[in-house]
C-alpha cells in the first residue's frame, strides 16, 4: 500500500508474547490473508512464522506500532519498559474480543491514516 503511494517504507511484524499464541496456525491469520487477497496484495512465497521481538528490532526500527494498546502496553512495560513510551499504540482488539471483520477494518483505517501522514512528511 505504501509503495503504491510512492513511499519507500516497508512493514514487518514481530510478536511480544509468542508463547500466548499456541492456537495460532500458520504464518499469517487466514482472515488477514483473505483480506489481503481481496485488496490484491500479494503475500510473499516465502512466508515466515512469527518471530519474537528483540531489543535490536526496537533499535533499528523507524517506527514501532502495537496494534492493541490494552494488551500490548502491559507487555511492553513488563518486557521492554524503556521502549514502552516510545512506540505508537493503536486500539485494535484481537479476535478473542472482536470479530475479524471489525479488527481488519480498523487496521486498514489506521494504515491508510499512517500512509497519509507519511506522504505529508
The span between the termini is 17 Å
Task: Give the proportion of residues in helices.
Answer: 25-40%
The unreliable regions are: none
Q: Mind summarizing the main beta sheet?
A: 2 strands, parallel
**Order of helical and strand elements:** HHEHEH
Q: What's the number of helices?
A: 4
Key traits:
globular, two-stranded parallel sheet, 4 helices, single chain, Protein-tyrosine-phosphatase, Ptyr_pPase_sf, mainly alpha, 121 residues
General description of the model:
- The protein has helices at about 30-40, 55-60, 70-80, 100-120; strands at about 65, 90.
- With about 120 residues, the chain is mainly alpha-helical.
- The chain has one domain (about 25-120).
- It has a two-stranded parallel sheet with strand order 1-2.
- It starts with about 30 loop residues before the first helix and ends with a helix.
